[in-house]
Amino acid sequence: MRIAVAGASGFVGSRLCPALEDEGHEVVALTRHPDDYYGAGTPVAADVHDDASLEAALKGCDAAYYLVHSLDDTDFEDQDAKAARGFGTAAAHAGVSRIVYLGGLGSDRDDLSAHLRSRREVETLLGEGGVAVTVLRAGIIVGHGGISWELTRQLVEHLPAMITPSWVQTRCQPIAVDDVVRYLVGVLEVDGVFDIGGPDVLTYREMLQHVAAIEKRRLPIVPVPLLTPGLSSRWLSLVTDVDGTTARNLVDSMSNEVVVRDPSIRDVVPFEPMSYDDAVRVALRERAVSKGRTT
Predict the structure, then answer these.
(1) Which of 115, 153, 180, 194 is the most buried (most CB within 10 A)?
(2) Chain centroid to CA 96: how far?
């Protein structure tokens, strides 16, 4: 199949493109800067905010992956909505038969954060043009270069102790980035909306403590319930390299429990996902290699 990937140079997309090629697919890597693209697939100029460029880039493609979001934009909800609607319409005009979208976990019965509400809206908007949309919903994705993982790692490595807000007690179900890629490849010709996660359900506090133990660090944690989301995001932007807008949008979501409610994906794409601890070790090894170190 000829498959377009929007977000080909990103955290997940840069791993998905070679995996699709390994399966024998022809990959079209959609990028605003094709001359600077060195990943798998053929780079094609396209911008999710430019409908004309999308329709030309998607022409002849059988399917498309949509791995785009705008967390670093204060107006991300509007930007993501416009981009998703435009992508879905362009895909329909180009004759694309399926879009696979990586969204976010979270129960619709909860008071979802703006970030998670936006992910839900994108699911709907991508299909408005009539193209079938398959959705995978994930929580924290663990892997070198992932924003949520980098927050976790940097907090553990930069602080001798942590004063934390109440959201450290929220449960989540992290998943290794390699397992996300396996699921994405596996649902290419499958209809539906699927929850994906690793085998471990942990609080954010437990996630931090696991990383500290693996790195043989001490990390005393003192919860402070009155630490507001605004103060939390400023604190995160001070002690990590994640920008303030992204930090605030992520913090707002940390009060929502993000766990798998429907495990049916395990029957559709059967394999044993990596444990959280193993995913952490892989991410740390990848970082060491990228920095020219050995472990």
Answers:
(1) 180
(2) 23
How far apart are alpha carbons 2 and 170 in whole angstroms? 41
- DSSP letter string over 23-56? TT-EEEEEES-GGG--SSSEEEE--TT-HHHHHH
Domains of the chain, by residue range, sit at 2-141+176-196+260-269
| Residue 186: strand, helix, or coil | helix
Q: pLDDT-based confidence at 122, cuts 50/70/90?
A: very high
Q: How many Cβ atoms sit within 10 Å of the Cβ of residue 241?
A: 9
Closest CA to 54 of 10, 19, 20, 92: 92
Joined tokens for residue 68: 């785009």
C-beta neighbour count of 217 within 10 angstroms: 13
Rounded to an integer, what is the distance from CA 25 to the centroid of its chain?
Answer: 22
d(CA 283, CA 152): 12
Q: Rounded to an integer, what distance in angstroms lies between the CA atom of residue 87 and that of residue 66?
A: 9
Q: Which of 75, 71, 78, 37 is nearest to 57 (CA)?
A: 37
> Rounded mean pLDDT of the chain?
87
Q: Are 256 and 106 in contact (CB under 8 A)?
A: yes
Cα 123 from Cα 126, distance rounded (Å)? 6
Write the single-letter amino acid at 229.
P
Handedness of CA 168, 174, 177, 178 (dihedral sign): positive
For 277, the token pair is: 């601890």
Give the pairing of strands 98-104 and 132-138.
parallel
Q: Can you give the pTM of this predicted structure?
A: 0.90
Percent of the chain at pLDDT > 70 equals 83
User: What are the strands, taking DSSP E only, across the chain?
Assistant: 2-6, 26-31, 42-45, 63-66, 98-104, 132-138, 141-142, 162-164, 171-172, 175-176, 193-195, 202-203, 221-223
**Phi and psi for 219 in degrees, rounded to 5?**
-140, 80
Residue tagged 């999710």 (tokens): 48
Which three-class secondary structure state does DSSP give residue 175?
strand
Question: In CATH terms, is domain 2-141+176-196+260-269 a member of 3.40.50.720?
Answer: yes
